[in-house]
Amino acid sequence: MEEYRHEFIDKNEMLDLHLDFFIDPGQTVINKHFHDWIEIVYLIHGDLEIQVNNRSMKLRENDFVVINPMSIHSTRCMNGNTAILLQIPTSFLEKFMPDIRDFSFAVDLESKDPRVQTKLANIRSTLQDLWINYQFQAEGYVFRCYSLIFEVIYILIHSFSYKVDRKEQQKNQKNLERIQEIMEYVESHYTEQISIAEIAGKVGLNEIYFSRFFKANMGMTFLEYLNMVRLEKIYVDLLNTNMPVKDIQIKHGFYNDKVFRRMFREVYGCTPREARTQ
């Protein structure tokens, strides 16, 4: 739960990617982050709230989402879920398709087109087969896993992709570099009272433009993001220490008690004390 900013993902031992069968007990929030991997989340049971580049959606059983590389995203799971998680580094796919970065993926689960629904069903069944083969690891399973992964990518490229404008790519890259710098500064100084003037100055922007830039790219104000980072740290300490709630708040720089309790309930659906007993 502490992974955010530019996320660095560990690969599976025998594969140049990350594959996991994830069981989330609930009350889990992963703050805004991004990485240079294609990420596919396929929900087996439960539900999952997800936001990708300021677009919110709720996944339910048998839904899946494809998150493009370098897309800012966050997740929230209140009631628990079970999911297959597949993360593929763009650098790996470039070995086979050098212009892969020129493509972006968009999947419409609600499409009424029977041909689209057939393709979606193929992706679901392929992801299920991928997990079964990886789990049992029969002789030669690595070859089977790679063939299934390439099948998923093939379907996405031919049925759910579009070309991305190069100028737009360059602009997005520049914006992400600035967002990265902001996130890294917050990670190092979140316990302090960071003003808009201070953080805007760190990235060479005036206060008004900074506020607009941050909201446009992150879907929240800078103060909301700063408090979300603090909230994540507080939640970890609530579950793993016996420190009084007030002491944990102060430790992580969240001094406004009213705002803290309101945000905590909005994000985790309970009070801090209830979180400790659940």
Automatic annotation (TrEMBL):
Q: Which UniProt keywords apply?
A: DNA-binding, Transcription, Transcription regulation
Q: Which SUPFAM superfamilies match?
A: Homeodomain-like, RmlC-like cupins
Q: Domain HTH araC/xylS-type, which positions?
A: 180-278
Q: Which Pfam families match?
A: Cupin_2, HTH_18
> Where on the tree of life does the source sit, at the highest rank?
Bacteria
Does the entry feature the keyword Disulfide bond, yes or no? no
**GO molecular function annotations of the record:** DNA-binding transcription factor activity; sequence-specific DNA binding
Matching InterPro entries: Cupin_2, Homeodomain-like_sf, HTH_AraC, RmlC-like_jellyroll, RmlC_Cupin_sf
Keyword RNA-binding included in the entry's annotation: no
Q: Which protein are we looking at?
A: AraC-like DNA-binding protein
